[in-house]
């Protein structure tokens, strides 16, 4: 969430909306949207079908393994505190810049918890959209 | 990169009101940053 809020300004300038999909229930999604003032559209894939369609990883070790632990430690050092969560504990996330139609400009599949897309990589993918607006 | 391929055809997701949405319709006529959350929270 914090990472999304960091890049929101860049996305706004590029005219690109954030569309998020979560794995929990509708109630959990609504609570999340209300509590975080989520800066985009929010959808739910309770059966994880959307995650499967994009080939996203799922597994206990991907959430609880040493790489995830190190990323969590790093986040703690930066002052980030994870509150309670809702959704499938073992499902990993991902980020895709895509559309219209079949265009895909960026794809990142988290290998483990905390394996977020590199902000520099995302900024580079957005650059052509910013350039078009000049 | 700018690849061309299809993803998510026939996959149904739901908006937070519980209404069905065809997954590819999210980006059929626009560019979006599609974020798969690991969890809500």
- Tally of alpha and pi helices of chain B: 0
In helices, the fraction of residues of chain A equals 40-55%
SSE series of chain B: EEEE
Structural class of chain A: alpha+beta
Shape of chain A: globular
For the secondary structure, the number of strands of chain A is: 4
Termini distance of chain A? 29 Å
Record the strand order, biggest sheet of chain A: 1-2
Overview of the molecule:
- The complex is a heterodimer of chains A (134) and B (41).
- Chain A is α+β, with helices and mostly antiparallel strands.
- Chain A has 6 helices and 4 strands, in the order αβαβαααββα.
- In chain A, the strands form 2 sheets. Chain A has a two-stranded parallel sheet with strand order 1-2. Chain A has a two-stranded antiparallel sheet with strand order 3-4.
- In chain A, helix 2 links the parallel strand 1 and strand 2 (41-44).
- In chain A, helix 1 runs parallel beside helix 6.
- Chain A starts with a helix and ends with a helix.
- Chain B has 41 residues and is mainly beta.
- Chain B is built from no helices and 4 strands.
- Chain B is globular.
- In chain B, strands 2-3 form a two-stranded antiparallel ribbon.
- Chain B has strands spanning 3-4, 12-15, 20-22, 32-36.
- The termini of chain B are far apart.
- At the A-B interface, strand 1, helix 2, strand 2, helix 3 and strand 3 of A face strand 1, strand 2 and strand 4 of B.
- Strand 4 (103-109) of chain A pairs antiparallel with strand 1 (3-4) of chain B.
């Amino acid at each position: 969430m914090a990472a999304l809020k960091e890049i929101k300004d860049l996305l706004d300038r590029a005219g690109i909306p954030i569309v998020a999909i979560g794995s929990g229930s509708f109630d959990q999604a609504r609570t999340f949207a209300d509590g975080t003032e989520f800066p985009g559209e929010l959808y739910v894939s309770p059966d994880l079908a959307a995650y499967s369609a994009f080939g996203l990883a799922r597994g206990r070790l991907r959430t609880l393994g040493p790489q995830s632990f190190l990323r969590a430690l790093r986040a703690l050092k930066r002052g980030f505190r994870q509150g309670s969560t809702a959704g499938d504990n073992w499902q990993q996330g991902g980020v895709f810049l895509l559309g219209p139609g079949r265009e895909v400009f960026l794809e990142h599949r988290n290998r483990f918890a905390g394996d977020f897309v590199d902000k520099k990589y995302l900024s580079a993918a957005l650059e052509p959209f910013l350039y078009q607006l000049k | 990169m700018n690849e061309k391929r299809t993803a998510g055809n026939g996959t149904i997701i739901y908006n937070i009101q519980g209404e069905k949405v065809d997954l590819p319709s999210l980006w059929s006529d626009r560019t979006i940053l599609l974020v798969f959350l690991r969890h809500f929270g």
